[in-house]
Amino acid sequence: MAIQPPTTEGLLSGAYGSTGYDEMWSGEVRPHWRSVIDGFTNAGADQIERWQQDVRRLLRENGVTYSILDDPSSTHRPWQLDTVPFAIDAEDWTRIEAGLKQRAELLNRVLLDIYGQNRLIRSGLLPPEVIHAHVGYLRPCEGIQIHQDRPLRFYAADLARGPDGRMWVLRDRTQAPDGVGYALENRTVISQTMPGLIGRAEVRRLSGFFRAFLAGIEEANPTARRTPNRVFLTPGPFSDRYFEHTYLADYLGVPLVRGDDLTVRDGAVHLKTVEGLQEIDIVVRGVDDRFCDPLELAPDSALGVPGLVESIRGGRVGVVNALGCGVLQNPGLSPFLPGIARELLGEDLLLDSAATWWCGQQKERDHVLANLDRLLIGSIDRGDESHLIFGPELNEDELATWRDRISAEPHLYVGQEIMSFSTIPTLSKGQFEPRHGVLTAFAVASDRAYQVMPGGLTRTTSERKRRVVTSRQAVVSKDTWVLGPEHEPHVSLWIHTSDTDAQVDSSLPSQTAENLFWVGRYAERAEGLARLTRLVIRYVIERDENEDPARTACLHRLVHTLATLTDPPPDDAEPAAPEPEEELLDILVNVDRPGSLSSAIRSLSRAAYATRGRWSADTWRIIEGLDDQWPDPGTTYLNPSLLRNRLNELLTGLAAFGGLNQESMTHEVGWHILDIGRRIERAQLQLELLSSTLVEREDRALTNLLLESVLVASESLMTYRRRYRGVLQLRTVLDLLLFDPTNPRSVAHQLEELRSHFEALPKHSRTHHLPQHERLIVEAHTRLQVTDPKSLVQPRSRAVKRGRLAKLLDSTGRALSKASDAITYAYFSHTEVARPLNASEPHGPER
Amino acid sequence: MIFDVVHTTRYDYAGTATLCHSEARLLPRSFESQTSLSSRIDVAPRPAALDGRVDHFGNQTTYFSIQEPHDSLEVTASSRVKVLSREIPPAAGVTWEDARNSVVADTTPAALTAREFRLASKHVPRASSLAAFAETSFIPGRDVVEALLDLNTRIHDTFEYVPGYTDISTPLDQLVEDQKGVCQDFAHFAIGCIRWVGLPARYVSGYIETVPPPGRERVQGADASHAWFSAYVPGLGWVDLDPTNDVIVSNQHITVAWGRDFSDATPLKGVVSGGGAHSVLVSVDVVRDDDAVDA
């Protein structure tokens, strides 16, 4: 059969021809789209499908996720990237680029004026309420940015093309370079997937922009240090921008920190690290400016650093973007920008914004109120698209509410013309389909000018009918191809300009250390619980009607052991012991039960997510897999054999995780701390297990079952059989599980490992005394070493309990708990929370 | 009139605090009706840093930090202030509506500055619960000063002065409901009413000279910090009224700082690490220096 040559017509869906302005189609393919169309046409359906699969795989492997605003159920979703790019021709781009540079320059001048001379307001070019009523106008920041010529270091604009073919500015983004990380990731993935196509199309490279990006950050350094210490400040794992923050911090090669990782001392910002305090010169912030200092800015914020504003004022630290930039994310400014541009720059604006009416003026307010059902309604504070309201979608009651709201405080609102924007081809079921799209373009100030990324982050609607792109719904992103002659040499996007020998880059923030410690503990806990429950399930499966009473007793004892390892639910109304199956199910899947397997897995993935940048791609895949594999908390029925399979998979995953920890993490302080967490947890689980099974004296049959169970749960049965030829004895079991330093599951082995880890930790004092955690473990270890195993068995005693064994297990367990606290105090205690002082309030004498 | 003021704030912590960043607005500002002759802040334990600046509203602002372990913090502001008598006419000769319209149209620096105080603020959000009270004083066509004086008196007569009944987090709506509070509540309430009708109003923090009851000695430290409000009247400027005492502010009020509300003029605030629970003890002494030559 003859193979049909692929045709362009087959590639385009039937939707072409009927819509408004399309980026690719004007009755025929626009010239600058030719190479893209040819590339896809020649590739054919199978290759296109393979590209899309490769893109999905790469994104998944790199762990690229995003969050949907206002959707608490999705903390992170896989990022969607379309293989079809948004192509822009050279001439068009030259105009866009010039317009963006001008707008960035202008907004920077406005910023300097608002927090400086204040001439725009005094001369009447800008009504004061546009600024004074904006939540982002930070009065304490007046005059603090003068050491930077361009405190608006990063600028981004959302652009869309109108029916006239011109690009319009939809909104300005001035807080932080949100989206620049996704743009970088998109280009990296597309280059890997379609190297031939992107090469033939003559696509402008991004490396020049990213060099400027790195250099621009360093220019914010107010101190004399040649290689500045930098950090990236994030609100933390619960932020919808956390993925991008980990990505950018990784790209910049700087520690990702939260507000409480930093402290201001002696006027300077310091990072709390395991090694001690490290002075910081530049803070790249992913936290909105008004939350950056609870002393002088929003007092109820826990995301910031008390004293930061004063430190900036003193010229001790540079923050990018400068604090105060948020006021520019303000649609109320739009109508005044043309006049301000003529005054400050002597120029007309090159890029227009959609017609906007600020309601603080009578005439404009009347227009908005009269046309509310035909406009986009927004607050001046919320530049974010998710807070824009579509007049045409409102019913009469809602319109009336908005009219009241605007009439009460008109200066807070704007009305904006709803425009119809162009469509961009997007792949859908193997064909190109026109979808409305928005381009976020980026500029950075470096070397006294703004440089624009020749590209950007393009987002299109996920359904054809949607007209507006918002981050409220799922969107599909695209790489943006600016076509034209290339002046940039081909260099990796991951090459850094500065020689990053800054000391802080290699130090471990205390908070990261604490999270790693808990990753170690929870991973070990999950493993220990999984192994023990797997054993219990075996007893459940093998149960029959004429059950041997010793086996029943053993099952109950093991379930009881599991229950003591986890706290029983507090509101347990039923005093009687529940059926073992019920209790087991609860221990496995009740995520609200402290210490349950589900809660250990959840805590493990949370602590791992909080240290996202520390994990290799392979490790991260395993971490994500653990969470996915485990049954939903809602599981109400226990299918033992299915559950056993799940536990096997879980144990394989955990073993892989442990192996990668060992083999692919550099053995620096962070690794030592993670393994300390593991060792402490493993030793404690072992002690608990021995204590709840072997302290009480039982008859021979039950004792044998318990001894065997303990060996199985400790993964030591094979070793035991080989060494002691199958004779089960308490003394030899204890020997193997407590005292034998060569058994990686024994308590003695954990103590030995802890001692050697402790020696590798940074020392805070030069005295010859051992630090407390080290002393506790040395004591416990010595106590173990001088104990005669025979003395613990006490064969002639008639007592119900083996007192000496209980005492030894107990004292070792207590030493481990105390050592854990001592480590927290010595290495993580910098993570002490700062709280506001109660204000002294005037109560004013009445005379 | 010359006053010596000593204002001491003492925090006692249950545990040991390791780090404290603070900001004080305790040094009286100078302006047409007042001159700060001398003022200083003493902090114990000794601060690692202490730095003064003038804030957006023109207030003397002091930043300090303590980074040695401490169980208590004592901040003492001592000032000597000369206060001039202020007078306002019983009527401005302009209705409040005209006053409101002219503020918005006026582009003089004073009016542009004043416009900031028409906007809602943290402790004085725009609240329709104030409408009825505000519109009873601001009846159509009334002289603006008459309306302001009437508002001041009505707040004094309507609300009961009950120390400790409210704190700074008590919303205005609650005050409307309970009609009990202290000076800062009355000031915030008045500001809310004045802004409701579209005029600029600001919050003033300071002290008032108290006279001991007849036959009693002055008790040291028994005075308190005080708060009142100021409204902007085109032509007259800022008019200070004290609803707690139903008086026009003259030469017995010492002004320290002003702003949109309490949060802009907080005498002392801070962020502390460690220390656990803490208690606050405030003592204020306002002493008139009758011997000083009143030039």
Q: What are its keywords?
A:
heterodimer; A: 847 residues; alpha+beta; 27 helices; 44% helix; disordered N terminus; B: 295 residues; seven-stranded antiparallel beta sheet; five-stranded antiparallel beta sheet; 14 strands; globular
Beta-strand level of the residues of chain A, as a percent range?
5-15%
Q: What is the number of helices of chain A?
A: 27
Count of DSSP helices of chain B?
A: 7
The total count of strands of chain A amounts to 23
Query: What is the largest interface, and how many residues per chain?
Result: A-B, 43 and 61 residues
What gross morphology of chain A would you assign?
A: globular
Rg of chain A computed from alpha carbons, rounded to a whole number of angstroms: 32 Å
Main β-sheet of chain B: number of strands, strand sense, barrel status?
7 strands, antiparallel
Tell me the helix content of chain B: 10-25%
Mean pLDDT of chain A: 86
Largest beta-sheet details of chain A? 9 strands, mixed
Low-confidence stretches of chain A: 1-5, 69-74, 569-576
Quaternary state of the chains? heterodimer
What report would you give on this structure?
The complex is a heterodimer of chains A (847) and B (295). Chain A is an alpha+beta fold and 847 residues long. Chain A is built from 27 helices and 23 strands. In chain A, a hairpin with a 2-residue loop joins β19 (431-446) and β20 (449-452). The longest helix of chain A is centred in the middle third of the chain and has 33 residues, at 510-542. Chain A starts with 7 loop residues before the first helix and ends in an 11-residue tail after the last strand. Chain B is an alpha+beta fold and 295 residues long. Helices cover 22% and strands 40% of the residues of chain B. In chain B, strands 1, 2, 3, 4, 5, 13 and 14 form a seven-stranded antiparallel β-sheet that branches. A five-stranded antiparallel β-sheet of chain B has the order 11-10-9-8-12. A two-stranded parallel sheet of chain B has the order 6-7. The model of chain B has no long low-confidence stretch (mean pLDDT 93). Chains A and B meet through α5, β8 and β23 of A and β1, β3, α2, β9 and α7 of B.
